[in-house]
Amino acid sequence: MMSAKPDRPRLPSGSELELTDHFGQPVSAADWRGQSALVLFGFTHCRVVCPRALTRYSAMLDQLAAEGMLIRGLYISVDPARDTPQVMRDFLAPHPRFTGLTGSVEQIERTKAAFGVFARRVSDPDDPLGYRVPHTAIAYLFDADGSCLGHFADALPGAEALARLRLLLAT
Q: Cα–Cα distances in Å, from 74 out to 106, 125, 129?
């Protein structure tokens, strides 16, 4: 007798993903059902990792779109104190395939918990507001039904990440 396949993790729903997009509109996971989504966590005052990840994944999403595979990019802030919708919109202007998501501290904490993401403020005297937010640097790929197809560590080479995205989207 064959055992049942374990359920794949799912895109959080309900209050776990009720945020505000970078146009100031309330959104939830239901707004992305029916389309694949690549989810990244970050913050607009990040100096290296977040801009690099957005540039890298934007190029991949552009390439996949040219191949007929449309994926929605979602960039969820881990710094709601600074990342207002307008700040997110300005930050993401060079990355039009990504929608910025922010919210209250409580909303962001629920979202981080739902994804199992670590992020915490630490003192940084070089920052104008005196802190930075080290966080989990993983991208998550969800299919159109909200099931997690895979995740991608920041250290994964771009060509390998693109090949994995193609493979996961084709299955």
A: 19, 30, 26
Question: 164 is in which domain, residue-wise?
Answer: 14-170
Q: Is residue 79 part of a domain?
A: yes
Please tell me the pTM assigned to this model: 0.89
List the Cα angle 26/62/160 in 5-degree steps: 110
Higher pLDDT, 54 or 134: 54
Cα separation of 100 and 122, whole Å?
23
CB 115 within 8 A of CB 9: no
In a domain, 7, yes or no: no
- Residue 9 within any structural domain of the chain: no
In this structure, what DSSP letter does residue 97 have?
T
The Cβ-side half-sphere exposure at 58, using a 13 Å CA radius, reads 15
pLDDT score recorded for residue 16? 67
How many domains does the chain fold into? 1
Q: What angle do CA 24, 29, 34 make, to 5 degrees?
A: 115
Question: How many percent of the chain have pLDDT more than 70?
Answer: 91
> Does some domain include residue 3?
no
